[in-house]
């Protein structure tokens, strides 16, 4: 009798394991079925060289950036457009993980839970991206020979209008030396998939924390003689700023003032505001996960906290996350989550998916966002030259030291405070030099082109 009972218990356990396995398989089939079906070994969707053989990709104007013609993957006729949109569209082999041909392969092929990768109406789906290839070309040309990234999005709808990463290459004529130093990192989308030392654009976060935790902030003044010693380490400024209040310290990007503020606030408070700003989290851009930023405020001594407070030290920031944070300041605390897919045309009455605007959590308090908007606007008027940019542009520049005797990285981040042109932006020019002069000029070219075309 006992032997029967033991066998019954064993059978019950095996049945429970089988049921648990079926539930796990069902869950993963629903959540990851598209990923399984779009694996390059699937000969229904890919050729023998691993190239996707279904689906077209177009920009917001309907310009077809990639399509299938006579069974072959083709790209836009103009080589500059192909280079400028490479990281959005992708290469034939799928080496660029953020490219639509790889990241959205299941949606391009028409995968669904019922028919899998087989489409009963053929594979004539066209995915329309939110970006405009013309804006990408402007950004690509403005970056010139520099490595870097440019992103612009509508902070009310989430539509990414411009997304460029360099170095890039022509997917129709890939260079033979793609493994050389010239093309190092060409498969990486710096806008979505990198985390890089931010320099002074990060002072916006330090200012955010100071506004909410130092009651007499606007009553204080500081004397900048070019450096300040904190924790036995000298924090230097590019120049002697003299007497400063908080507004002029922000506009002149005084390292000494913001290093002292970060130490006064403390590592725990600074880490709290970094996390609230969304800079240590990963955004999901239509399923593409952005890189997470990293900061060492909690574990650092005063010297490290000081340098981190000015955007140096061990800070590493993702451009897309910083752009979204700027969008939240513009929107009063929350912003739309960036997205790349506008719509999918299926060739039938069936929808290709539902792509709607989603909101971030509160990245900054509403009252604080209003003060930051005013101070970011003052930066442009007092320091950067308002005539260079569209009306209502608010921004912070950054010049990030990278060591090794290399020229600093140039950053420029901000938004247009205008309901008719609700665009947040980020520009990174690696080893470019001055943030306002170099990255600011790239931003000027791109923003003016967007405002002119969008009306």
Poorly predicted runs: 29-39, 112-122
Question: Mean pLDDT across all residues, rounded?
Answer: 88
Largest sheet: 5 strands, mixed
Distance between the termini: 85 Å
Structural class: alpha+beta
Residues in helix, % = 25-40%
Radius of gyration: 25 Å
**Widest β-sheet, arrangement of strands:** 3-2-1-4-13
Number of strands: 16
Beta content:
15-25%
Q: Overview of this structure, please?
A:
With 455 residues, this protein is of the alpha+beta class. Helix content is 37%, strand content 17%. The protein contains 15 helices and 16 strands. The chain has helices at 2-37, 79-84, 86-89, 100-103, 105-109, 133-143, 190-193, 203-213, 246-251, 255-265, 267-276, 302-309, 319-331, 366-384, 435-454; strands spanning 56-58, 64-69, 72-75, 126-129, 148-154, 160-166, 222-224, 227-230, 233-236, 242-244, 284-285, 288-289, 341-345, 393-400, 409-416, 423-429. The strands form five sheets. Strands 3-2-1-4-13 form a five-stranded mixed sheet, with no helix packed on it. A five-stranded antiparallel sheet has the order 6-5-16-15-14, sandwiched between helices. Strands 7-10 form a two-stranded antiparallel ribbon. Strand 14 (393-400) and strand 15 (409-416) form a beta hairpin. Helix 8 (203-213) crosses helix 11 (267-276), helix 8 packs across helix 14 (366-384) and helix 10 packs across helix 12 (302-309). The longest helix is centred in the N-terminal third of the chain and has 36 residues, at 2-37. It is globular, with a radius of gyration of 25 Å. The chain starts with a helix and ends with a helix.
């Amino acid at each position: 009798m006992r032997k029967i009972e033991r066998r019954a218990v064993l059978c019950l356990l095996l049945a429970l394991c089988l049921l648990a396995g079926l539930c796990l398989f069902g869950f993963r089939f629903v959540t990851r079925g598209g990923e399984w079906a779009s694996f390059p070994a699937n000969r229904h969707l890919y050729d023998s060289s691993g190239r996707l053989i279904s689906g077209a990709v177009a920009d917001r104007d309907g310009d077809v950036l990639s399509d299938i013609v006579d069974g072959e993957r083709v790209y836009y006729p103009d080589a500059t457009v192909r280079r400028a949109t490479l990281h959005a569209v992708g290469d034939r082999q799928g080496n660029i993980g953020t490219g639509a041909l790889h990241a959205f392969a299941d949606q391009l092929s028409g995968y669904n839970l019922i028919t899998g990768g087989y489409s009963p109406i053929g594979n004539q789906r066209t995915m329309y991206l939110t970006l405009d290839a013309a804006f990408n070309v402007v950004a690509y040309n403005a970056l010139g020979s520099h490595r870097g990234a440019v992103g612009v999005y509508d902070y009310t709808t989430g539509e990414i209008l411009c997304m460029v990463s360099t170095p890039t290459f022509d997917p129709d004529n890939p260079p033979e030396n793609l493994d050389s130093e010239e093309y190092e990192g060409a498969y990486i989308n710096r806008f979505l998939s990198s985390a890089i030392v931010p320099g002074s654009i990060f002072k916006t976060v330090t200012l955010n924390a100071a506004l909410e935790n130092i009651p007499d902030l606007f009553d204080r003044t500081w004397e900048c003689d070019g450096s300040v010693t904190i924790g036995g380490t000298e924090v230097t400024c590019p120049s002697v700023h003299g007497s400063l209040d908080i507004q002029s310290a922000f506009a002149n990007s005084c390292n000494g003032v913001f290093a002292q503020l970060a130490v006064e606030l403390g590592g725990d408070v600074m880490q709290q505001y970094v996390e609230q700003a969304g800079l240590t989290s990963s955004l999901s851009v239509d399923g593409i996960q952005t890189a997470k930023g990293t900061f060492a405020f909690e574990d650092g001594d005063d010297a490290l906290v000081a340098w981190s407070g000015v955007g140096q030290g061990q800070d590493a920031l993702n451009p897309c996350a910083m752009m979204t944070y700027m969008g939240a300041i513009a929107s009063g605390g929350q912003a739309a989550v960036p997205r790349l897919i506008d719509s999918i045309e299926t060739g039938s009455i069936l929808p290709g998916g539902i792509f709607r605007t989603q909101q971030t959590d509160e990245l900054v308090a509403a009252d604080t966002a209003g003060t930051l908007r005013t101070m970011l606007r003052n930066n442009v008027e007092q320091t950067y030259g308002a005539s260079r940019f569209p009306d209502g542009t608010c921004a912070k520049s950054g010049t990030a030291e990278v060591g090794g005797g290399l020229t600093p990285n140039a950053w420029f981040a901000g938004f247009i405070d205008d309901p008719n042109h609700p665009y947040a932006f980020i520009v990174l020019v690696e080893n470019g030099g001055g943030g306002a002069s170099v990255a600011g000029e790239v931003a000027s070219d791109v923003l003016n082109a967007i405002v002119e075309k969008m009306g």
